[in-house]
Amino acid sequence: MKRTIGIIGIGAVGTSVAISVLHTGIADELLLFDARQERAEGEAMDMAHGVSFYPTATVRPATPEQMLEADAIVIAAGRGGKPEESRLDLLKDNARIIRELGEKLKGAKGLLIMIANPVDVLTYVLQKASGLPVERVIGTGTMLDTARLRQILGKELGLESDSIHAQVIGEHGDSEVVLWSGAEIGGALLRDWSGWTTEKEERIASEVKSAAHEIIKRKGVTNHAIGLVTAALLKWAVRGERRVLTVSRVQEGTFGLNDVAISLPTIVGSDGATQVLEPQLNEQEFQALKHSAEVIRKAIRSIED
Length: 305
Description:
By secondary structure, the protein is an alpha/beta fold.
């Protein structure tokens, strides 16, 4: 059975997603669209020339309407900020772009994967505009934050990041919540690790939150890690592996959260982000999650005024 992945928005991020998807081998056909369609055409040509070096796939430009039968469509569309422009102006403009895309994707048969920022707000906008079931509109959410946390912890403890079970939930942004109380290594609580202190938690949480800023300060964009994250999400979802991932989706009652897109551990398979889990939180983490949801709600209200 042919697997088709579409990518809308072929800037630095969309291009990194495309290359990572090709290397995973999950796509038999990769469809590219950009508002500057010559850019999508050029990238498709360039990637197609490398077919000898990744599992065989067809890469070609396509319109959003031509992607409706795809197994998944990744949305990396939007624009960057302008000098002297407020964050709210940028958010309103990008929300408008996503609403227009959502209208075009109402008939999509597969999953919609939002990676443009602010990812939680735009995941909400896309779900409402497309009218698709909430489980089929998924934001990458705090998957990258969780990966950053595990990488930093691995470096701190001298372990491979895959051996560390720790999660970031909430907003993909400043109000994100690190679940320190449940972090484990081989079934042992991290907080029981010899020499572990709350001071380390504060420093590492701050490093995770500031990671994107530090990268952007140096190279202007973060693109490669999110490309790898998105390709992994697509691989696990399209293959129906039912992984537990910290993705963002519009919530329907978990932890009392409703009608807001926010990241929580969620079972993701070919039918989408179906089952949202409730990890054990201490009172401080629970209150931080509620605060994070309110930060996102405030941003959503700001574009609805």
